[in-house]
Please model this.
Amino acid sequence: MLPWFQDGKFPLYLAPMAGVTDLVFRGICKELGADVMVTEFVSAEGIIQADDRTRKYTEFDDGQRPVGVQLFGADGSRMAEAARKIVNWKAPEFIDINFGCPVKKVVSKNGGSALLRDCPLLTDVAKKIVEGVSVPVTAKIRIGWDTDSINAPAVCRMLEDVGIQAIAIHGRTRAQGYSGEADWDVIDQCAQTVSVPVIGNGDINSGEDVERRQRETSVNGVMIGRAAMQYPWVFREAKHFLKTGEHLPKATIEDRWALIIRHTQLALDWGKFPNEKLTLMGLRSRYMAYTKGMPGGKVLRTELSTVGSLAELQDIAGKHMDWLAEQQAASQKGASAVEVV
Ligand SMILES: Cc1cc2nc3c(=O)[nH]c(=O)nc-3n(C[C@H](O)[C@H](O)[C@H](O)COP(=O)(O)O)c2cc1C
Model:
């Protein structure tokens, strides 16, 4: 059994998210309580060709362990070769195989969720990777291709049979994309079908959600994606809630701005992009996620959509906090309440 499931531990995974869960964001989530991390997916071919961009995607530091590197592809032998290369470079605790990606570019080459429709190929890919590397191999799947072909329990059995050591299940079909709700009944059925740990994934937004899934299903851990992208404190709050049944106070606007600025500073130090302007441009979608639900968000997001330097970002943060303080003072005097966009 993977050590982070031993003795009834119930790990909180940070979901792999392409373009989001890079070295910096993973580090932030780890500090805030995420137990296990998986890199954003990388193509086996990118690894074999050792291109710089792919290396950046797989970068992590020791503080983030246990870490898995996620691979996608449709050729088991090439993927096993890529997996060996990563193990030699970085010694991650595990390799994770992506059998869930719904994106056309991946699916059209038979990668990601396309393999849910081709179980012989899916088992071949999984088996070759398991046999090809010295570290444990895990998998991430969706519940099926579409509502007429929900096959996750059968897929889980096949994956277990070829030696996959844990399975994360996003409770949607490929056809659903991100719409509708995750089907936790199917996730639960999977968890009851196999003896390897199953990590439930889909629509977890709070400690209460984690507690409910732990209580109502047989999953051995949960994975959090979009909620963490907007509010990485979700891990800390969930852990506290699981332990005490009580809620921690929410992160304040000051906390949120401090995090945005720190994230930016760390990204600049890391040098993912060649200069300050490109770094800030690369972070714009992170800013949009971090500021979702903040008062005055509409104006804020317009400003953030053109921000090009750390100084400018600090200026926007300062102005926003001043504006909020003014709004609060005014509302205390009985004037209009703070607009929430
Ligand atoms: C922007 C974005 C990028 C994603 N990239 C990946 C990926 O690289 N690999 C993967 O297995 N899943 C990927 N996913 C799916 C998530 O890991 C997760 O399964 C999904 O968001 C459902 O969980 P949630 O409801 O907690 O967000 C991505 C999701 C989002 C929103």
Notes: Strands lie at 12-14, 36-38, 42-43, 67-72, 94-99, 137-144, 167-173, 198-201, 221-224. The longest strand covers residues 137-144.
